[in-house]
Amino acid sequence: MKTIIKSALYLSAAMTVLLLMAACSGTAEIGEAPSEAVCKSLVDAKCVQCHYKTRICDALGTKSVGQWKRSIKFMIKQGTQLTEDEENKVVACLSSLPRGSEVVCK
Length: 106
Ligand code: HEC
Description:
106 residues, 6 helices, elongated, binds heme C
């Protein structure tokens, strides 16, 4: 009986470590890009306090997902208020929108 409990404990400890590793890894899935309406309202609400959207428009189609992640982390350091969910959504939006997309460029 004791050994069963012990191995169950080991197992759950191992699972926790694995989950933490998945949660912390930089390559965690950002998920599908949200609809254009969601992308637009996020950018309009969160990304225009410090610079025009032209800054973002100019960068469309030039960055990988990883590069967008880094850019958005930089914006957050500058003071952009984004929840983790919003951060992932913005990255998914910007890395999937084509150059010149009306979502950001209008
Ligand atoms: C708190 C201020 C602030 C907010 C809000 C902000 N940014 Fe920025 N952003 C900056 C600063 C500072 C720079 C650097 C400006 C420069 O290079 O002249 C910058 C530059 C950029 C650039 C050009 C440099 C690059 O990394 O390609 C992009 C693209 C960009 N921001 C995207 C965004 C997006 C998308 C959002 C909304 C999620 C956002 N920004 C919100 C401060 C902000």
